[in-house]
Amino acid sequence: MNPKLAIHGGTAVRSIPLPPLLRGALVIGGEEKEEVDRVIDSKALFRYYGNDVQHCVERLEHQIAQEANVPYALGVTSGTAALIVALKALGIGYGDKVIVPANTFTATAGAVICANAVPVYADIDESMNLDPHDLERVYDNEVKAIIAVPINGTPCDMDGIMAFAREKGIYVIEDVAQSLGTTYKGRFAGSIGHIGTFSFQMQKTITAGEGGAIITHDAGLFERAVRYHDQGSFREKMRYGFETGEQQAFAGQNYRMSELTGAVLLAQWKKLDPIISVMRHRQQAARRAIEARLPQVRFRKSPDPAGDTGSVLGLFLPDAETAVRFAQAVEAEGVTCFRMYGGRPIYMTPFLLHQRTAEKNNFPFDFPFRHPVAYKPGMCPVAEDLLSRYVHIPISPTLTERDAEDIAEAVVKVYEGLGVDQWTKA
């Protein structure tokens, strides 16, 4: 007989819950404090001038560019800011459409709207990422770009996405907010499309609480990004060997990263590889242990498993009701488990579904598109199905081998204890 589930009054697999849904934040220590102290002592908190500037943001940009194997990197204030700056660098705005995956955080679609363009939603596949085969369905000649989002550490099928973009002559932005360190066929996620964006928010792989970055191979896009993030200025042209004059300038906003943020991230960046290494090992260990006892379980797929960061262990249940019960029961065993975004696509968020903005006439949705933009339930049926029955367990860089064993034990115990129907792997 199976052990009694904790949700039914039995003894939980763990008496102490696993760490919270955090990664880089859990390994903050003396290294971050030392970098910040140097900035505080310098009294130069602004990256571009002061009595004793420590050049933390500049050094961070160099590290990012070196790791991603790109010539240009730019620190900004947040992942959302990075997306907006990227869109503006590409010249996207009013009257344009941008393809967004049905499974992503609201910031992806929100940044498109804040850049004065309109998102249109493509379906996903069992990687939980954008399905390149659905791009043709949502494309029309008003679409100017695709945002590919490798969600929770699993890469997108970038070959398919880039091939489609080349055929149509449109841009690709990689929103790598949740997946820093992910690779696809050996290439750093964010470096494959025309421009890539990162987030350093509290839950991200490395963090300064907030912060973001942009990377690109394109000098022209980089200059536009720099100018938009610094109110039209390009203060470090000599650093990059740029000779453009002020005729290239245009009005921008202030998305400059502070030296304090740069200081924290300098120390965090050095921990990126160790964080990913631990997450990968723990996720793979838990998955192997589950597969050995429950070979019928269907795990999230990946177009390049070697490139996954291992930040979550994701699996599919037969239906939405079972997924809800499963997640609740695993939580009761002391292992964090939940459905992504409440089990629904991003376009079902009310303000997106009803196209509400802070602007007059719900600008930019008031543009007279030749192909009107309408959102409704059912428009991405695969996403609605998969998200309703997908659950995942976050993997922390502080997990031990025993913790990975407990994750596997909780999944097996609940799967068997709930009597989840046996079904064959695809």
UniProtKB/TrEMBL annotation:
GO MF terms, alphabetically ordered: pyridoxal phosphate binding; transaminase activity
Keyword Transferase: yes
GO biological process: polysaccharide biosynthetic process
Classification via CDD domains: AHBA_syn (cd00616)
Positions bearing N6-(pyridoxal phosphate)lysine: K204
Active site: residue positions: K204 (proton acceptor)
InterPro entries: DegT/StrS_aminotransferase, PyrdxlP-dep_Trfase, PyrdxlP-dep_Trfase_major, PyrdxlP-dep_Trfase_small
Family of this protein: Belongs to the DegT/DnrJ/EryC1 family.
Classification via SUPFAM superfamilies: PLP-dependent transferases (SSF53383)
Enzyme class: transferase
Protein name, entry field: DegT/DnrJ/EryC1/StrS family aminotransferase
Natural source organism: Paenibacillus roseopurpureus
Keyword tags: Aminotransferase, Pyridoxal phosphate, Transferase
Record-listed E.C. numbers: 2.6.1.-
